[in-house]
Amino acid sequence: MTDRAELAAFLRTRRESLQPEDVGLPRGRRRRTGGLRREEVAVLCDMSVDYYSRLEQPRGPHPSAQMLAAIARGLRLSLEERDHVFQLAGHAQPHRRPRRDHISPGMLRILDRLEDTPAQVVNHLGETLKQTRLAVALLGDETAFTGLARSLHHRWFTDPAARSLRPADDHDEQSRLLVADLHGVHARHADDPRVTELVEALHRASPEFTALWREHPVLGPYCASKRYLNPQVGTVELHCQTLVDPDQSQRLLVHTATPGTTSHSRLQLLSVVGDSLRPTPAEPN
Questions:
Q1: Could you give the CA distance from residue 7 to residue 67 in angstroms, rounded to a whole number?
Q2: Does domain 4-88 have CATH number 1.10.260.40?
Q3: What's the superkingdom here (predicted)?
Q4: pTM
Q5: Is the CB of residue 63 less than 8 Å from the CB of residue 44?
Q6: Can you tell me whether residue 282 is helix, strand or coil?
Q7: Are 202 and 186 contacting, i.e. CB atoms less than 8 angstroms apart?
Q8: Which H helix or E strand runs over 128?
């Protein structure tokens, strides 16, 4: 059963405890409220202001598990706080294993400060959980996929569109790197049925994957630069740095270009033109 009053009070207190700089937003000069405005939270949660406002009043609809997960991310809730929100809304608490889709507040705070950089949080299955606006402009909205297609590993071996982002000369190396990564994930999470499902699905769908899997490739300590094909600015060569959150089995991937290079200039151009390509948040049902 939903406790609308308690849910509204909890959301309001968490909103009021956050400052704009905590979530990568400008403070502005005319700010009367001590915390975030409702419209700012709505943007962070990818929902309408009216929908979020009604939850706080409380007179809103019964939020789905997907909407609650979005609110938990938008308000930078801890796992314990997220579980509490689910309980107040009358939903079963999400399983912490094997589905590790909740991003830790600390990881989100780092991501918030990388808005002018292509960066994204990816879980152990290769599923993108959150991207900066420049990462969306560079790679597309990777959070929009569903089912097995959420995993880059699965898309790479089953969807030709996934390979269109990389030069053809780089495909063999990328295939080997992805298989090596998934091999490591499979070894570390042998008890995770989602990992097993992903590996088995790829064996059924891709002879290339199966052939590489049998070779047992292993990732090396050095991550070479990668080239991306972007329809707006052309080829961009980027270096990727990784921050790992062991508790969540998640990685923060940060892509940078060497200053003074053509790729650096193109990335700056994409930062400008990319805003015109951003999708409009969908209206919740």
A1: 13
A2: yes
A3: Bacteria
A4: 0.70
A5: no
A6: coil
A7: no
A8: strand 128-131
> What gap in Å lies between CA 87 and CA 66, rounded to an integer?
14
Of the pLDDT bands very low, low, confident and very high (cuts 50, 70, 90), residue 256 is very high
pLDDT at 1: 66
* CATH number, domain 105-277, options 3.90.10.10, 3.30.870.10, 3.40.50.150, 3.30.450.180: 3.30.450.180
pLDDT of the residue at 205: 97
Q: 140-169 in b/e burial notation, b at 16+ Cβ within 10 A?
A: bebeebeebebbbbbbbbbeeebbebbeee
User: pLDDT tens across 51-63, in order?
Assistant: 999 998 877 778 8
The rounded distance, in Å, linking the Cα atoms of 4 and 60 is 8
CA-based max dimension of the chain: 62
**pLDDT for the residue numbered 280:** 38
Instruction: Taking residues 177-194, report their average pLDDT.
Output: 89
Residue-range domain boundaries for the chain = 4-88, 105-277
Q: With 90 as the cut, is the pLDDT of residue 27 above it?
A: no
Pairing of strands 128-131, 119-123: antiparallel
Q: Quote the CA–CA distance of 182 and 199 in Å, as a whole number.
A: 8
Q: Which of 16-20, 84-88, 274-278 has the lowest mean pLDDT?
A: 274-278
User: 229-234 contacts: CB < 8 A, separation 24 or more?
Assistant: 229/164, 229/165, 229/166, 229/167, 230/137, 230/138, 230/165, 230/266, 230/270, 232/137, 232/269, 232/270, 232/273, 232/274, 232/277, 233/266, 233/267, 233/269, 233/270, 233/273, 234/266
**Within 10 A of 53 (CB to CB), how many other CB atoms are there?**
15
